[in-house]
User: What shape does this take?
Amino acid sequence: MADPKTLCVYCGSRTGEGDDHETLAQELGDFMAKEGVGLVFGGGGIGLMGVIARKIMASGGRVIGVIPEHLDRVEIGFRGGTELHVVKSMHERKKLMFDLCDAIVVLPGGLGTLDELFEIITWSQLELHDKPVIIVNHAGYWDPLISLIDHVIDQGFAAPECRDLFTVVSSAAEVIPTIRAHKPPVRPSDSEIF
Ligand code: AMP
Assistant: This one.
């Protein structure tokens, strides 16, 4: 695809064990700011969300947060960004985050991140979009997830082509070049999906 202007990053509202995940979020933030690629994210100032947002702002980049009003207080809405959209519901949040971005990147995260990832790849499976979805599997964090998806395919509950609905990379440096090289996935026919 052409140069992405914005990336939606799904990631944890916690920082996880060790320092590795924070370093990864900072590295991605650094690449995005240097390449002039804006961040669209869940608008929280905590966890990896806050780490990447602060890094991008400190590096002179653009940060667009989208947070539902009921989480604005709990997730301590990040007000140091370029824009913060406060929306009514989680559904509105996820739709607006999707509409505002050219591609989606998944960093380590928890159940909310998994929900967001599965929604975006199932929307792609149903041909509602063909935006690139990049999973950053740094230090094998997402290995069990990838094994689970392979298992689902092996057991006949998803078409083998579903493996192409996302691309797995292992470092922040690969994210933007992988998006630039992205070609829309080969679509399974409806009879293979259902
Ligand atoms: P987590 O990965 O659980 O730390 O959450 C990361 C982000 O996903 C946070 O901004 C959460 O608000 C959001 N989130 C948490 N639960 C859900 C959910 N059920 N659906 C969509 N987003 C969620």
Q: What stands out?
A: The beta strands are 6-10, 38-41, 63-68, 83-87, 103-106, 133-136, 167-169. The two ends are 29 Å apart (CA to CA).
